Amino acid sequence: MKNIKEKLLIICLLFISFYALLYTFKPFTHQKTVRYLQDFSNSSFSYQTSMNGEPSNEAQYLFKKEIERQAYKFPDVYFLEQPAAKRKKIKQIALTFDDSPDDWYCPQVLRILDKYKVKATFFLIANRLKAYRYNAEAIKNAGHLIGNHSFAHQKMTEMTTEQALADLALAEQEFVKYLEIQPLLFRPPYGVMTDEQIIELGIRNYKIINWSIDTYDWDTSRNSPEEILARVEKYAHNGGIILLHSSGKDRENTLKALPLLITFLQKEGYELVTLDKLLLVKAF
Questions:
Q1: Which residue stretches of the chain are H helix?
Q2: Which residues are catalytic?
Q3: pLDDT at residue 149 is higher than 90
Q4: How far apart are CA 233 and CA 236, in angstroms?
Q5: To bridge 123 with a disulfide, which of 10, 119, 139, 187 should be the other Cys (CB 3.0-4.6 Å)?
Q6: pLDDT of amino acid 1
Q7: Backbone phi, then psi, for 170, in 5-degree steps?
Q8: Does residue 209 sit within a domain?
Q9: Burial class (CB in 10 A: 0-12, 13-18, 19+), 105
Q10: What CATH number is associated with residue 139?
Q11: Using CA atoms, how far apart are residues 111 and 117, in angstroms rounded to an integer?
Q12: Are residues 99 and 149 in contact, defined by beta-carbon separation less than 8 angstroms?
């Protein structure tokens, strides 16, 4: 009987030791963090299926998930598409162009938009404004919306927050000097920035705008006019923001695809609008 009691005592001690060790090595999880991650994983933003629908490698997939996380975390500052609460019965979508101005592709894009009576949003690189002031003014005078695409198109995740704010200040000076405007819509180069940078820009009344539909017109391995159009046809959705480029590199395929995708969107009943109208935010 004594032996049985001793064995039971040993078993009990072993169980107690096991659970003590389990508790000791249990990873720390904050209740709010767990709830946030659960909410995010169950969220139903349309850009989770439409944004970057064809990531070709792990880096692009991780980028997709990161900007989705930031849009969920900073819903009043950071946008990938029109918030569902702001959507109207009429379908709206926004064309956005990065990397202007220049003196070759940008004027051709403007002519196409004028032909189809479409207004778009252009995110301009500020250190190009002096050299291509005439073309930047042409964008403004045609009634298109202008956003800030940084001073020199450097990746913000490779900057400290102080360096990013200094870059922003330089860009602001150039916009005031050459266009007499102070854009409050900001698209970070390559679409990337840190949470701290987002917070600091939000304090300064900026809105961070990325996109929900990547046409991949920047990717020479898959940017034929037909491929660009096919992505718009597949992923177009009410409240969507379409990423295109109007400068920087060879944009001939973008020029060829642009009339095709505008025609498609108009036939599908979309109203093509600038970002301030899509998001109902202050642009300047």
A1: 2-24, 31-41, 47-50, 58-73, 105-115, 133-141, 161-179, 195-203, 225-235, 252-267, 275-279
A2: 98, 245
A3: yes
A4: 6
A5: 187
A6: 54
A7: -65, -40
A8: yes
A9: buried
A10: 3.20.20.370
A11: 10
A12: yes
* Distances in whole angstroms, Cα of residue 193 to Cα of each of 82, 202, 203, 218, 236: 20, 13, 15, 20, 26
Task: Give the number of other CB atoms < 10 A from CB of residue 75.
Answer: 12
Which of 41, 106, 108, 111 is CA-nearest to residue 69? 41
C-beta atoms surrounding 244 within 10 Å: 25
Q: Which amino acid is at 273?
A: V
CB atoms closer than 10 angstroms to residue 23: 8
139 inside domain = yes
d(CA 45, CA 39): 12
Hey, what are 111's tokens?
A: 């002519």
In a domain, 28, yes or no: no
In the block, tokens 């491929």 appear at 227
Q: Name the residue range of residue 220's domain.
A: 58-279
pLDDT at 249: 82
Question: Closest by alpha carbon to 198, among 176, 168, 175?
Answer: 168
Q: How far apart are CA 145 and CA 61, in angstroms?
A: 30
78-79 and 271-272 strand pairing: unpaired
- Cα–Cα distance between 33 and 13 in angstroms, integer? 34
3-state helix, strand, coil in the chain (%, to 5): 50, 10, 35
Give the contacts of 231 (CB within 8 A, at least 6 positions apart): 53, 54, 213, 214, 215, 216
- 133/267 Cα distance (integer angstroms): 35
Q: Judge whether 38 lies within some domain.
A: no
Among 93, 96, 40, residue whose Cα is nearest residue 68 = 40
Q: What are the Cα distances from residue 154, in Å, to 46, 119, 138, 163, 203?
A: 29, 27, 25, 11, 22
Q: How does pLDDT run across 7-17, given as a tens digit for each residue? A: 555 555 555 45
